Amino acid sequence: MARTFLHPDEALKLVLENIEDYGEEKISVLDSYNRVLVNDIYALNDDPPFNKSSMDGYAYNKEDENKDNYVLIEDKIIYAGLSEKIKVNRGECVKIMTGAMLPENCNAVQRVEWTEKIEDEKTIIKFTKKEISNNVIKKGNNKKIGEKIIDKKFLLPKDIAILAGFGFSNIDVKKKIKVAVVSTGDEIANIGESLKDGQIYDANAPMLVSRTLALSCDSKFYGKVNDNEKEIKDILSKAIEENDIVLISGGVSMGDFDYVHKELLELGVKQIFHGLAMKPGKPLFFGKLGKKAVFALPGNTVSSFMTFEIMVKAYILSCLGLKYESSYTNAVLTDEFNRKDDERLEYVPVKLIHNNTKLEVRLINYNNSSMIASFSDANGILKIDIGISNIKAGSIVDVRFL
């Protein structure tokens, strides 16, 4: 009986139906880079919290602007951070610095460059040029108390600045998902080792660890094991016990030495699917053991990368409470594309280039999923549906950025 393979769209649906909530915690804003907020964040106070000067100059009441000369309050300078209440009468002005709080009865600032100081019995500040603006940033001009300031998301440095600027010291974030990465295969050598005949370096583990770290996971490489049933079972048992998600590279196809699928089932992992009508990525396995998720990815590095991008990334983002969007967009194919096998949905690494007002898709020198070096030129994925073997140059195609 011929084996049937699941359509990738159906597989993704199953992945998203099996997400878990791995909890939340309160942390310092100082430690919040790349962490995921539990909720949207709303302003605790107005921004700015007071009327403030937007430049160095002299604060005064603009209702007196028909006057050219103002009496300077000589013994006072209002600088940023000064909390002293200074009384400025009509016809008077006071020196003020950028960012400083305006006195209550002032509503404008004359920039210092457009003034002239006249020494008399009292020091007079003459305004030499009329201001168009008040040069004042009003209280709540940027955000008012209670307004949303940050959506639920991965926090970037600019977001951390916003949080700190609004007085947040601690925030609620999603707990880091614990991820184990395991590589399998006699043909694999760890980076730093000397290659033996017939061996290649393990590119998958460093890639998977870095991809999960970028998604705010607590990731650990459990090492490389040979194609030995007991070794595979032992390391998978330990990885599953200690982590929320286990990513296995290699040993999941139909070869004589592909033991991963068998050992996962013996460990009690419930298979949700194994095998997709997808290129690259046909052998992908997804299963659960309680709240633990297991993805066994193909050994070829581009296949491993693509299955992570399409399936694993979607699972992690959804577990973190973020909406997963595949974000495909239309683009113009610059070269004709042909393939012999049109029975699988194919994801082709491509180079996406903005050319004036249109997005162009350029094919790269890529022939199979083991060509990791050529993958370095790719910044996008071209999606080709089942049943399509030829796409003419100039056609509109579906792409997404990596």
UniProtKB/TrEMBL annotation:
MoaB/Mog domain: residues covered: 180-318
InterPro entries: MoaB/Mog-like_dom_sf (IPR036425), MoaB/Mog_dom (IPR001453), MoCF_biosynth_CS (IPR008284), MoeA-like (IPR038987), MoeA_C_domain_IV (IPR005111), MoeA_C_domain_IV_sf (IPR036688), MoeA_linker/N (IPR005110), MoeA_linker/N_sf (IPR036135)
Alphabetical list of SUPFAM superfamilies matching this protein: MoeA C-terminal domain-like (SSF63867), MoeA N-terminal region -like (SSF63882), Molybdenum cofactor biosynthesis proteins (SSF53218)
GO molecular function terms noted in the UniProt entry: metal ion binding; molybdopterin molybdotransferase activity
Pfam families named among the record's database cross-references: MoCF_biosynth, MoeA_C, MoeA_N
EC number: 2.10.1.1
GO CC annotations, alphabetized: cytosol
Pathway assigned in UniProt: Cofactor biosynthesis; molybdopterin biosynthesis
Superkingdom of source: Bacteria
Keyword Nuclease included in the entry's annotation: no
GO BP annotations listed: Mo-molybdopterin cofactor biosynthetic process
Substrates-to-products reaction catalysed: adenylyl-molybdopterin + molybdate = Mo-molybdopterin + AMP + H(+)
UniProt keyword annotations, A-Z: Magnesium, Metal-binding, Molybdenum, Molybdenum cofactor biosynthesis, Transferase
Cofactor: Mg(2+)
Family indicated by similarity: Belongs to the MoeA family.
Role, per record: Catalyzes the insertion of molybdate into adenylated molybdopterin with the concomitant release of AMP.
This protein's name: Molybdopterin molybdenumtransferase
